[in-house]
Amino acid sequence: MRTLNSNARSVLLSVLLCIAVAAPAAPPQGVEGVAHVVLVSIDGLRPDMALRANMPNLRALMAAGAFTFWARTTALSVTLPSHTSMLTGFAPAKHGIDWNRDLPLSEPVYPLRPTVLELATRAGLSTAMAAGKSKFAVLNKPGTITHVFVPAAANSSVDDDTVAAHAVEMIGLYKPALLFVHFPGVDLAGHEKGWGSIEQLAAVEHVDAQLGRVLAALDAAGIRAVTAIIVSADHGGAGRTHGPDDARSRHIPWVLAGPGVKRGFDLTQIEEREVRTEDTAATVGYLLGLNTGKLDGNPVLEAFAR
Length: 306
Hints:
The chain has helices at 6-22, 47-52, 56-64, 79-88, 92-95, 116-122, 160-174, 185-193, 198-220, 247-250, 277-288; strands at 36-42, 66-72, 127-131, 147-149, 178-183, 227-232, 251-257, 265-266. By secondary structure, the chain is an alpha/beta fold.
């Protein structure tokens, strides 16, 4: 049997090293049993309003999963920057969206960091977004989301029923691996009538019914058992507004239910764990096995039974 001399061995080792370096890393595996993720944001839902209101669908998700009513949104505490952080996993200073309305620009501007919708689309998954405010068009960079509904008229919104109808249709027709649903009604009621008002309380109860329509659509499509559901918000509010570094604006609910998730688990039992809105994107990536890279947020691993 011939043996390799030292020069030949060196060449062979160099070739093997190059192959090892060039070989792509194995993709993350995701959470066992999860084939779909639905991320629902209830715009302006201050946590205590969810507690005051009759929200049977949200409470059922809490009983079936893990939750905290002490999660925190971005310091800006306004819709577009906070939602961009929710979907990219980065603070506004890094994703670059620090305004909160449709801008009359000759060329559209998109986040500097990819959303989880974009990452999922790149990975070959079907994605969808049903958003109730026109400014969410900033998250719809061409080619990054498979199916999209956003109001067409600048600086406009639609009601929660319309958003739910589009989300239900998307689930029935496409069964997307990742669906983002944005309900605007609670925020609109807060700006018009005030946070904590009777009118806003009615809006909270109404949006829970629309959440129920989305959950029923998952049942009808036969995918509920393999779907992880996250329900959160972008900010709270006080008076008729919301803004930076106000605890009434910064605290948000965060609920996760689905395969592999602890049931009825209050995340505040873990003293050192404060859930942040950037953690939502990281958790979606973890659920679907997306290669998110290093984010400002981290997956809420404490929610899972491991």
